[in-house]
Write a structure and sequence with these properties.
The chain has about 450 residues and is α/β, with parallel strands linked by helices. Helix content is about 45%, strand content about 15%. The protein contains 19 helices and 15 strands. The longest helix is centred in the first third of the chain and has 19 residues.
């Protein structure tokens, strides 16, 4: 069968899809990946066929250390914060309606490719005729292209399914609104996208378009929200991109090795980090550890000094580095989290404010396999504290001194090994496509 993967212009979201794409390719299926021009090279370097769709785009705006990103007068944080809200008292109809009104008109429409990507993707899908479209959970051009070309389709998650959870809340509240309050921005937005290609829309189609005919989920179930959706769990398999591994990576460290990484998305798409890298590094300067910090040239230029126990590298594959690490400090991104879980490494999450970073930190703390730095603990003064038991220094020391963190992380690693592999997923996708054809 022919399988079309599609993802908006974020390399980390594409990397999340590579193992499944390659499993299908290795099983003999034709596979190609369609994305915006800025990701085409990364697709080609993965060994998969690349199709350029839409225009090169990024999300403008640079954050300050308060975590706010200004994008067309609205903070990037606020674009996502509505969808990630979980407090029951907040989830009123007005709140949920406002969240999806903003998401459809701004985030889903423009930040994930806009009409240029949608038009190009549908044109390619109708020409190539895929049997299956696998779409990143933020790339809603995917289900439209599948519907326009007659293909089955499955979305692929990149962490906690906040969109699916919030859409279920939205649909439930919408069904109980009086006619004069029956605004449906999601249905209107989907209907408009489908009508552009001569495809009909009806109310029962909205859930499928928002959450896929199936959901491919590499998130550990104990971290995921419980939703009654047809889900295909798959084991997270690291893909860090093609690279040459430095010789020092595989040499046993003389001191406990600590990895510090703040991910690619913040520095490549969102304009920078949400807290001070200098303060993070200074907080660990006096510990008897070796810190490997992945910092690019922009981040290095912002540093006043580089502590002697810090090795700064622009990139090193986490799949190779983490087996030698005693702990990893990171922003809570799904790719970094997945690499650490695969290798049984305890984690300290200094969360970004974009999606599910806080969720991951809290789940790891509950399992005794990591710790969370709350936002108030990420100020310069708090990071430098040597007295506070919740300081970064204190958390690193506790993980190094208490073997239970490594033991619990190893239990999670073994659990993940029992999750179906991408190879096992192939058979399920083949059966799905066969059912769709029938």
């Amino acid at each position: 069968m022919r399988v079309l993967f599609t993802v908006y212009g974020a390399k980390t979201h594409f990397y999340n899809m590579v193992p499944v794409a390659w499993a299908l390719r290795a099983a003999g299926h034709e596979v190609c990946v369609a994305s915006q021009p800025q990701v085409v090279e990364a697709i080609s370097r993965s060994g998969l066929a690349a199709v350029s769709v839409g225009e090169e785009e990024s999300i403008p705006g640079r954050p300050g250390h308060d975590g706010e990103h200004v994008t067309s007068g609205t903070s990037w944080r606020n674009l996502n914060a509505g969808v990630t809200e979980t407090r029951p008292e907040m989830l009123t109809w007005d709140y949920v309606l406002g969240t999806f009104t903003v998401a459809c008109s701004t985030h889903y429409e423009h930040a994930t490719g806009g009409r240029a990507m949608l038009d190009d993707l549908v044109e390619f899908a109708r020409s190539w005729r895929p049997d299956l479209v696998v779409w990143d959970a933020m790339t809603f051009a995917g289900p439209v292209a599948a519907r326009a070309s007659g293909a089955a389709h499955a979305r692929m998650l990149f962490g906690v399914d906040h969109i699916g959870r919030m859409y279920r809340t939205y649909a439930g509240l919408l069904a109980h609104q009086e006619p004069e309050r029956h605004d449906d921005p999601v249905g209107d937005w989907l209907a408009g996208r489908l009508a552009r290609f001569g495809c009909a829309f009806h109310d029962g189609l909205a859930t499928e378009m928002m959450t896929g005919q199936r959901t491919i989920d590499p998130t550990p179930p104990w971290m995921q929200v419980a939703l009654d959706l047809p889900s295909l769990p798959v084991r997270y398999v690291p893909y860090n991109g093609p690279t040459t591994v430095p010789d020092w990576v595989h040499r046993p460290p003389e001191r406990p090795r600590v990895c510090l990484t703040l991910g690619m998305t913040a520095r490549e798409i969102l304009g920078g980090d949400v807290f001070s890298v200098q303060d993070l590094l200074e907080s660990v300067a006096e510990l008897d550890v070796e810190v490997v910090a992945t910092l690019n040239s922009d981040q290095l230029r912002e540093l006043r000094t580089l502590p002697e126990n810090v090795r700064a590298v622009e990139f090193v594959p986490l799949n190779e580095l983490l087996p030698s690490c005693s702990t990893v400090i990171h922003h809570g991104g799904f790719g970094t989290l997945g690499n650490a879980l695969v290798h049984g490494v305890p984690q300290i999450i200094a969360p970004g404010r974009y999606w599910d970073e806080l969720d991951f930190g809290r789940h790891l703390e509950a399992r005794g396999a990591g710790m969370l730095l709350e936002h108030e603990q990420l100020s310069g003064e708090a990071l430098k504290s040597k007295v506070d038991g919740d300081s970064l220094q204190s958390k690193i020391s506790r993980i190094l001194d208490d073997p239970s963190y490594r033991e619990n992380a190893e239990r999670i690693r073994q659990e993940n090994q029992r999750t179906p592999s991408p190879r096992a997923l192939v058979t399920q996708l083949e059966e799905m496509v066969a059912g769709h054809r029938a």
